[in-house]
C-alpha cells in the first residue's frame, strides 16, 4: 500500500504514534470493550474519515471490533448506519467534516462514554493514567496537570504533543485533532 495510506489494518500503529489523546482514549475503549457508544463512535468515525479511511475500510474496522462481542448480522443491522451516515451516504447525504477541538470540547460524556476532550473531562486519576500510558515521565505531569486544572485543555494538549514528540507543536494553538495528526506524521516520517 502506498506510504501514508490509512487502512483498518494500520490504525492501531498510527494511533500509538500520532493520534491525539481524545482519539487514543476512544481506541483504547473500543479495543477493550469491543464497543463504543453513539457519540464516541461518531467522533472517532469522522476523525478516521478525515485521515482518509474509506467507507469500506471503516465498516471493516468497526466490524472487526464489534463482532468480538456481537454477531455480524447484528452489527450490520444496528451499527453500519452511523458509519454510512458519517460518510454522507445515508440520511441527509451530507458529507460531515471531522469535528474540531471546539466541537469536541462541548461533549460531556456520561457513564461508559469516552467522547469529548480528555484534558477537559478526565478526573485527576484518569488523567495521570492516560499520561502514564502515553509514556510521559511522571516528573513532566505537573505542567499538564496545571493547565488542566486552570481550564486550558488545548494548552494542555499542546504540552502533551511536545512531550510525546520531543519537539513543540508548530502552531500557536491546537484547534483540530486532524491537524494534530498531520503535524505528528510530519515528525514521525522525517
Ligand atoms: Fe483532542 Fe483537541 Fe482535546 Fe487535543 S485539545 S485532546 S486534539 S479535542
UniProtKB/TrEMBL annotation:
Residues 14-181 form the DNA primase large subunit C-terminal domain. This is DNA primase large subunit C-terminal domain-containing protein. It comes from Apolygus lucorum. The chain holds residues 586 to 775 of 811 of the full protein.
Amino acid at each position: 500500500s502506498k506510504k501514508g495510506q490509512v487502512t483498518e489494518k494500520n490504525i492501531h500503529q498510527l494511533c500509538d504514534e500520532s493520534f491525539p489523546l481524545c482519539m487514543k482514549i476512544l481506541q483504547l475503549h473500543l479495543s477493550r470493550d469491543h464497543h463504543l457508544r453513539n457519540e464516541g463512535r461518531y467522533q472517532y468515525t469522522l476523525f478516521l474519515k478525515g485521515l482518509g479511511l474509506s467507507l469500506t475500510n471503516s465498516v471493516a474496522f468497526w466490524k472487526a471490533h464489534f463482532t468480538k462481542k456481537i454477531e455480524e448480522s447484528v452489527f450490520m443491522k444496528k451499527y453500519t448506519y452511523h458509519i454510512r451516515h458519517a460518510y454522507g451516504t445515508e440520511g441527509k447525504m451530507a458529507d460531515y467534516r471531522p469535528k474540531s477541538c471546539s466541537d469536541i470540547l462541548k461533549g460531556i460524556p456520561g457513564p461508559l462514554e469516552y467522547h469529548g476532550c480528555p484534558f477537559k473531562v478526565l478526573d485527576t486519576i484518569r488523567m495521570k493514567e492516560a499520561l502514564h500510558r502515553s509514556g510521559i515521565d511522571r516528573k513532566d505531569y505537573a505542567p499538564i496537570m496545571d493547565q488542566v486544572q486552570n481550564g486550558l485543555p488545548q494548552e494542555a494538549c499542546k504540552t502533551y504533543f511536545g512531550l510525546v514528540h520531543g519537539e513543540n507543536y508548530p502552531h500557536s494553538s491546537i484547534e483540530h485533532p486532524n491537524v494534530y495528526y498531520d503535524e505528528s506524521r510530519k515528525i514521525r516520517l522525517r
